[in-house]
């Protein structure tokens, strides 16, 4: 029997503690947990938003409005329908959110280290760049799971002609992944729609992260007491609201690109490029067509990012005090 001394165990524990307390690792862990918790809270709104977005001009518009959509989901599929795809979403969102926060913090660290004046705070443009990099890297790492989640969402819903009745057995993650890879063009097919996704996520993360940090900076420097967690929730909600409204048309395109090939035109949209998609969408569906599902999206992202920022800051503080 191998005898492991108490001092060795203590050393191992200290090494693990130091590893977790490392700024990049703490950001990664706190970001992942914050993402999983926040997305679970708003899972019904997330699925309702996707279903509303995917109703093109050729669909039968089975879903109208955010709360009616949620009610229909519950009526057709039970309470499990409200959280359909959430397990996959959490599996996807943990690395997505973790990478996003970790890259954002690392970019900030690099920028601060290279500046000659050694100021402790970044300016707005630097925060925007750091946020954009966080968004780009997180999309690249987790995009196939995002595509699969969108496919599973529409395959289990009574949307257009894709589902003429309830599915006896919902599609699996592996089955959907292998199907896309085998029948739609191999590895490249797993990243179908990544361009509009990146174009939407990068500026959203940039606006969200930079605006939240600016609000927190104001709170920290203000003589007024902003220690109540509600202020963090409010700051996160406002930052996500602004970013979500500004880039929403690209979020609509992201979901449509991900499912267009599986619908074979039955949803009413087939796009050749991002530019063609934007022109077509505004031309045939009007200005409000580009903002289809916005209300459901705001119901999702505003509380989601509010909870995410609160979880992230709270967990980071706990790790630093550990």
Describe the structure.
- The chain is an all-alpha fold and about 325 residues long.
- The chain has a single domain, classed as Mitochondrial carrier fold.
- Helices cover about 75% and strands about 0% of the residues.
- The protein has helices at about 5-20, 25-40, 45-55, 65-75, 80, 85-115, 125-155, 175-185, 195-220, 230-265, 275-290, 295-320.
- The radius of gyration is 21 Å and the shape is globular.
- The model is unreliable at about 160-165 (pLDDT under 50).
- CATH architecture assignment name: Alpha/alpha barrel
**What sequence of helices (H) and strands (E) makes up the elements?**
HHHHHHHHHHHH
Mean pLDDT: 80
Q: Predict the CATH topology.
A: Mitochondrial carrier fold
Biggest beta-sheet profile: none
C-alpha end-to-end distance:
33 Å
Low-confidence stretches: 158-167
> How many DSSP H or I helices?
12
Helix content: over 70%
Overall structural domain count: 1
Oligomeric status of the shown chains? single chain
DSSP strand content: under 5%
Backbone shape: globular
């Amino acid at each position: 029997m191998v005898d492991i001394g108490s001092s060795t165990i203590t050393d191992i524990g200290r090494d693990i503690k130091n590893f977790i307390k490392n700024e990049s690792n703490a950001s990664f862990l706190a970001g992942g947990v914050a993402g999983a918790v926040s997305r679970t809270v708003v899972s019904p709104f997330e699925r309702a938003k996707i279903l509303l977005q995917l109703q093109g001009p050729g669909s039968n518009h089975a879903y109208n409005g955010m709360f009616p959509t949620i009610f229909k989901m519950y009526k057709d599929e039970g309470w499990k329908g409200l959280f359909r795809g959430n397990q996959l979403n959490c599996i996807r969102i943990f690395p997505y959110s973790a990478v996003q926060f970790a890259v954002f913090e690392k970019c900030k660290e690099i920028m601060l280290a290279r500046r000659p004046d050694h100021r402790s705070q970044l300016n707005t443009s630097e925060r925007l760049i750091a946020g954009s990099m966080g968004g780009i890297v997180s999309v690249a790492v987790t995009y196939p799971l995002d595509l699969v989640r969108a496919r599973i969402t529409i395959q289990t819903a009574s949307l257009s002609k894709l589902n003429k009745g309830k599915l006896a057995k919902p599609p699996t993650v592996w089955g959907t992944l292998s199907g896309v890879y085998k029948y739609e063009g191999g590895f490249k097919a797993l990243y179908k729609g990544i361009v509009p996704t990146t174009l939407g996520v990068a500026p959203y993360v940039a606006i969200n992260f930079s605006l939240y940090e600016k609000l927190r900076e104001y709170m920290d420097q203000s003589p007024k007491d902003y220690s109540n967690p509600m202020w963090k929730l409010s700051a996160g909600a406002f930052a996500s609201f602004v970013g979500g409204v500004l880039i929403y048309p690209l979020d609509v395109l992201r979901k449509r690109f991900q499912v267009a090939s599986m619908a074979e035109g039955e949803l009413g949209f087939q796009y050749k490029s991002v530019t063609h998609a934007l022109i077509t969408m505004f031309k045939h569906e009007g200005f409000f067509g580009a903002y289809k599902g916005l209300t459901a999206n705001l119901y999702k992202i505003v509380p989601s990012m509010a909870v995410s920022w609160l979880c992230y800051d709270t967990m980071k503080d706990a790790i630093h005090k550990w």
